[in-house]
Specification:
There is one protein chain. The chain is α/β, with parallel strands linked by helices and 188 residues long. The protein contains 4 helices and 20 strands. The relative contact order is 0.11.
């Protein structure tokens, strides 16, 4: 029989709280401890902050910078490429994989949500949830206050306008924005 963590990582329905979700609860607590350290270091201690992120995240590329505060569920499901920048208040619900390519910039208050909950209240009240991955390509700029929902892929060379809610895949080489986020035009 699979553990709740194995179910979560396989994209199956799982329970993340209570006795069934004890392993996941402990892992979230571990991430919160590291994030507390990260978010409370003096601004000058960039090297120390980056060392904490290397312990927390699944993969880090060369040259990355996160403006504190930063929040995530587990950390180990997040991979970032080279030359990554995140402005203040990045939140990642990383119950599934979050893969971010090279040369990606995120504005303030960007939120990446891999977690989802059942539509039917009976299952939701039983604390079931599920997670679907997010993938962000290379050379992407995501404007502030953008929300990216589960099971979304954003192609290479994309600009997402501020305040967007991305609910569907965005192809490469476009400018997209809105709620819901839609392609406005190709980048020429």
């Amino acid at each position: 029989m699979k553990t709740e963590k194995e179910k979560m990582l396989a994209g199956e329905a799982y329970i993340a709280v209570g006795r069934k979700g004890e392993e996941l609860f402990k892992e979230r607590q571990f991430a919160k401890e590291l994030l507390f350290q990260f978010n409370n270091l003096p601004p000058s201690e960039i090297r120390e902050r980056n060392e904490i992120l290397k312990k927390l995240l699944g993969k880090t590329g060369k040259n990355f910078y996160f403006e504190p505060p930063f929040r995530c569920d587990y950390g180990y499901n997040i991979e970032i490429g080279r030359n990554f920048y995140s402005n203040y208040n990045m939140t990642v619900l990383d119950c599934a994989s979050v893969k971010i390519g090279d040369n990606v910039m995120l504005g303030p208050n960007v939120q990446l949500y891999t977690a989802g909950h059942p539509i039917h209240h009976e299952k939701r009240n039983e604390l079931w949830e599920y997670a679907k991955p997010i993938k962000i390509g290379n050379n992407v700029w995501i404007g502030g206050n953008t929300v990216i929902n589960p099971d979304v892929t954003i192609g290479d060379n994309v600009v997402i306008g501020a305040g967007s809610v991305v609910t569907r895949n965005i192809p490469a080489n476009v400018i997209a924005f809105g709620n819901p986020c839609k392609v406005y035009r190709e980048i020429t």
